[in-house]
Amino acid sequence: MTLGISVNVGSIGLCLMGFGEPLENMEIPQEGSSLTLEMERIDVAVEELLARRGAERRDVLGVGLAVSGHRMLETAFNCPLPLAHWSLIDLAPLLGKQLGLPVWADNVARTAALAEAIFGVGRDVADFAYIAHLHGYGGGLVCGGMPFRGSFGNAGEYSVLFGRQDYDDRPALSLLLQHLRAKGRVDLTLKDLKNEALADWDGVAEWVDRVAPAHNRAINAICAVFDPALIVLGGELPHSLARMLIERTEFNNLPRHGVLRDVPGLTVAQIVDAPGAIGAALIPLFETVL
């Protein structure tokens, strides 16, 4: 068995996996600003997850940790402000000591892309780009069925496409949350946005129209640099909202000699529940067995 743990703004997901098969998922709140306390809560949740299957820690091969943020060192990340206490710290040794297990770490958007590669669209498509609409806006690239991380481990950091002047017009769910709170839904949380009825809420279509140019910039950059067969809209994005973005997609595709070039298809992610934690649980398998 392996464990996957994904640390997102507002939630921490856990997945217990057999040999390539998710067995149990769990979600606990991410709250507060103490790394020590959150790791202790993760420890308690791991014990509960194992108890559901009558398993013990000695049955676990290892742990994959997925964290929101740019990768800085081997297992250190520069996280969003609400996860500042997880930032710029070599996390794998700390969590490994807490759990008494070996730990590998990666960015949560790329572990979500890995889950999609193994259990989702990747079963039929070897080359695809994954866009993770989370608190932030990132993703991952899958080439030949395997994740491509780049020299510094940050391939798929689509937010780099935007400067300070248009950073707030990215299709990041934290920005949708701000927009809807300004419209009167003051108590909304990120978790509330994972709702298929979201597309019908007042202000949502307005926000989608506002971020459509940024969405199209990212889509066309992916086409130009990576040329995948498919682009997958995932993360915590409801399918209804993903389809709104797909409907507004415009490819930069000028005809030459009257002929257009081939462009990738766009689709919604197939792995909806805990994709970051599921992908993280795959990391120990890839690092030790596969």
Automatic annotation (TrEMBL):
Keywords, in A-Z order: Kinase, Transferase
Q: Which Gene3D superfamilies does the record associate with it?
A: 3.30.420.40
Any one GO MF annotation of this record: N-acylmannosamine kinase activity
Q: Which domain of life is it from?
A: Bacteria
Q: Which InterPro entries is this protein grouped with?
A: ATPase_NBD, ROK
Alphabetical GO biological process terms: N-acetylneuraminate catabolic process
State the name under which the record lists this protein: Putative NBD/HSP70 family sugar kinase
Q: Which organism is it from?
A: Rhizobium pisi
